[in-house]
Amino acid sequence: QVQVVESGGGSVQPGGSLRLSCAASGFTVSRYAMSWYRQAPGKERELVAGITSAGGRINYADFVKGRFTISRDNAKNTVYLQMNSLKPEDTAVYYCNAVARRWGDEYDYWGQGTQVTVSS
After folding, report:
1. CA 49/CA 63 separation, integer angstroms
2. CA-to-CA distance for 68 and 19, rounded, in angstroms?
3. Is 15 exposed, middle or buried (0-12, 13-18, 19+ CB in 10 A)?
4. In the Cβ-directed half-sphere of 91, how many Cα atoms lie within 13 Å?
5. From first to last of its 120 residues, what are the pLDDT tens digits of the chain?
6. Residue 18: exposure state from Cβ atoms within 10 A (0-12, 13-18, ≥19)
């Protein structure tokens, strides 16, 4: 069955680093546009980074450019988000999203999220 599972969250001090993992089952991440979103309490989900299926094009939100890196490991069917120079405002639940559309069918999968807390 199709499933997306995030892991790697935790608590870290400002300036620290975390690597989030998005493990997929039931589908192949290389055939999907994969994205990381985050949501802080009382706020809407916002896009953090994305990587397309075709060509591996990458896009980042301005507030994470130079600090975060999204990558895909096709052999492990996993997408990562390397988070460096973390700031308190990065505190949120981070979600992995997979999207594909072909022949009129849309596929949109979300994980359960992993908590990232940045505090001193």
Report:
1. 10
2. 9
3. exposed
4. 12
5. 899 999 999 999 999 999 999 999 999 999 999 999 999 999 999 999 999 987 789 999 999 999 999 999 999 999 999 999 999 999 999 999 999 988 889 999 999 999 999 999
6. buried
